[in-house]
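Appendix B, record 7
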Amino acid sequence: MKIPPELTDITYIGDGVYAAFDGYQIWAFADRDGFEHSIALEPNVLDALERYWQKLKNKYEDRRP
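Structure tokens (predicted):
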């Protein structure tokens, strides 16, 4: 996987996904089916993802093992 050298704080977060930081947004990278995939999550999108995660945790709290 080719992560651009300008990104910092590269870490493996699990399930074949790496995260990195460019000073503004968090990037996620994964190799799947022979292709490299990446997305950039700017702060407001990351906040929205966190709110979504909290909503799901609250909704399914009683169903978790």
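Remarks on this record: The beta strands are 8-14, 17-21, 26-32, 35-41. Helices lie at 43-59.
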